[in-house]
Amino acid sequence: MGKFVGNITTNGNVRDGFAKYWNQITPENEGKWGSVERSRGNRDWSALDRIYKYAQDNNIIFKHHVFVWGAQQPDWVGRLSGGEQQAAVRDWMKAFCERYPETKYIDVVNEPPPHTTPSYKNGIGGDGASGWDWIVNSFKWAREFCPDAVLILNDYNNIEYENDHNNFMRIARAVIGAGAPVDALGAQAHDAYKINTNTVKGYIDKMASLGKPVYITEYDIGIADDNQQKRVMEEQFTMFWNHPSVPGITLWGYIVGATWRDNTGLQHPDGRLRPAMQWLMDFLERN
């Protein structure tokens, strides 16, 4: 299949014609633990079932977002004892992996400190000997239950800003060195459009020096002006596409008025493509 170029659900649904444009799908919110298991032991898989089935039926890649994250986590987890927290996290991963065995990619830990810290961090290992045992354990459990998936350590600002990049690299080195089965690194890239493309490439190069592929996981371009958005798309997407260490790119929404960040939409609700999207489809020969 080569490199994939994917996108996310739109307001909880897979939009008609999704597979015409994208060959990988990530649930935007539907796969977050807080969405699936609002009360302990009562899991609502209905949205994920629909999205997973769409991926299977259309022969596109299904990516899971996310196992462990210090946001959109169930309220009840923070009130458990440490032992119960560990059991709950393992149960969550196990149940997901049993239900969706063809999941190809998983954001195992998203936005590690200082960006977010799970309420149950200490219950799943705390800092420990590595300083990041809770991350190490999260990856080991993900490998145990989803042995065939590509396991990703995902963060934002790590290909845009030096301090964030350096912090991410420090964490990645530590957890990989402590035996975490990290298969790949993820760069959300929400702010990349604001940054010189050569600077962004330099940070990707440094991440790749750890010997892991780098996935662009949440790319968007928050520019209202059509021509400016297209110019950034041409320049940055081409760099991502040609980078030998980037095997896949996920864009974070595409329908105008239904994206997480303002002005990031690429297709109007009536089907018209913004110029950046038209260029992208021409580039990918997906017209």
TrEMBL record:
<keyword id="KW-0732">Signal</keyword>
<feature type="active site" description="Nucleophile">
    <location>
        <position position="218"/>
    </location>
</feature>
<keyword id="KW-0378">Hydrolase</keyword>
<dbReference type="InterPro" id="IPR017853">
    <property type="entry name" value="GH"/>
</dbReference>
<dbReference type="InterPro" id="IPR001000">
    <property type="entry name" value="GH10_dom"/>
</dbReference>
<dbReference type="InterPro" id="IPR031158">
    <property type="entry name" value="GH10_AS"/>
</dbReference>
<dbReference type="Pfam" id="PF00331">
    <property type="entry name" value="Glyco_hydro_10"/>
</dbReference>
<dbReference type="GO" id="GO:0031176">
    <property type="term" value="F:endo-1,4-beta-xylanase activity"/>
</dbReference>
<protein>
    <recommendedName>
        <fullName>Beta-xylanase</fullName>
        <ecNumber>3.2.1.8</ecNumber>
    </recommendedName>
</protein>
<dbReference type="GO" id="GO:0045493">
    <property type="term" value="P:xylan catabolic process"/>
</dbReference>
<dbReference type="InterPro" id="IPR044846">
    <property type="entry name" value="GH10"/>
</dbReference>
<comment type="similarity">
    <text>Belongs to the glycosyl hydrolase 10 (cellulase F) family.</text>
</comment>
<keyword id="KW-0624">Polysaccharide degradation</keyword>
<keyword id="KW-0326">Glycosidase</keyword>
<feature type="domain" description="GH10">
    <location>
        <begin position="1"/>
        <end position="283"/>
    </location>
</feature>
<keyword id="KW-0858">Xylan degradation</keyword>
<keyword id="KW-0119">Carbohydrate metabolism</keyword>
